């Protein structure tokens, strides 16, 4: 358990050399986006889905306390301890009001506008200071509709990345059994996952990135963009970064083949870009990030293959 | 493919005899909540996740066209046909603006306030007509925060119900193989699912329902409420209805034992209540609802058991 102090860095995205020309201009320096959080508690559980929430908190520079007590569900599942309604599983996050939310994509969708991570328009849905409101007109109805659409598009892409989590490749029968008790089934499932699911997923995200008009994309998926929505980092970028990172850890041989095919350059480019973002860069260097190991992404050499 | 005309019924929830006294008063008759949709297109795919979206559309009385062309992904995955970004899988829904959204929970979270299905406060986030706005003060900042929290709490409960979908019990190795090619694995997985997953899920929702203060719940989960959030129907209620319905179809023997235990009376009570809601009642009687069969919920006698 730890609390760290508020970072004072800004979150202007680092612009990569590979971006197409009309996204090369530096965006204006942005104020830190802590979304009203002075600090918060994150019930992360074992390294796994909690990491998607941590990445957003680290990007926003919000200090947080980790609560990873042994039987985390005796708190999260008990209305007398956590409030109404109780929760089914970690991760969970305490909001400034004290209310606790769970379910990874739900937490991210709730905080994304507050942290400037819901796209250019989507992030304008967050409440702003009186000072900011005086400077800027409120959203019109039409703008609000478009902002809600952008926020939901970001959420949609987060959900797709979460669908790919590799958990079931090592626990296809039950998560309450050891891996050792389901090895033959895991071998079959991992083979299908490597052959079909990973390439389908990478192809899909390659097309999303390469068709993004804000970074020179075309409807034929021929661009070189490395932002999923618009030309700024969203929770979807952070989530895709983490899933690709997990796949590189769990299936290094398969991912090497796929990377070297050259078919997914924007996806691997996004992975590299996010590593250098303000907030994320410092987090990765800090030693705070929990290593992959016994959580969602595990490396078993016998489940990997070049194909 | 079909288009049906706009229903003119209202959506005041039917109040069950079993509800605790302070929710027995009839809510005011509500105007139809079509959320600005005069009609829409739903890419539902095979009976499965699309049904969660259909239930919300039917509840709201929004006419929709089903698009279930054979190779649905050749449209949904192609930016030249569907717009930006492309989609990974059905279901998808066209918004009044023309923009298409996918991912079940995302679609539901987007439309829930517009259809009055995001809770009492959460539903106030939707844009209202000028007439309605004149009658009512706009939300204060604090009200908007609480409304966003309620909307996210509804989304959280939707996500938990979707986590329970039974698909992997009959396809634990790969969805691209036939059931017949993964029968031994399916038998092992279904046994674990029946023994652990279903009771854990029903216990959790029983506690959410029985701790809901709006229907007389207590933090010891001793109430008899049948609404997940507040005292009105939300997308979470519709989703839980459908999952319980699917489990009753797929695992009739197991569910009979669990129902007769008397431990999950609020969950089974909600299932019965939702069947009688305006909009849902007519839908179930219409013959439009696709039967369970070869989709998410399948009945294989050898995967069921009383335990």
Automatic annotation (TrEMBL), chains A, B:
Which residues does the UniProt record annotate as the domain GST C-terminal?
147-292
GO MF terms listed in the record are: glutathione transferase activity
Which residue stretches belong to region Disordered? 1-38, 126-152
Coiled-coil annotation reads: none
The annotated regions of Basic and acidic residues compositional bias extend over 136-152
Q: Which Pfam families match?
A: GST_C_3
Q: Which Gene3D superfamilies is this protein grouped with?
A: 1.20.1050.10, Glutaredoxin
Supply the InterPro entries for this chain: Glutathione-S-Trfase_C-like (IPR010987), Glutathione-S-Trfase_C_sf (IPR036282), Glutathione_S-Trfase_N (IPR004045), GST_C (IPR004046), GST_superfamily (IPR050213), Thioredoxin-like_sf (IPR036249)
- Tell me which positions the record assigns to the signal sequence: none
GO BP annotations, alphabetical order: glutathione metabolic process
Superkingdom per UniProt: Eukaryota
Q: Where is the GST N-terminal domain?
A: 37-119
Record protein name field = Glutathione S-transferase
Q: Which organism is it from?
A: Grifola frondosa (Maitake)
- Source taxonomy lineage? Eukaryota, Fungi, Dikarya, Basidiomycota, Agaricomycotina
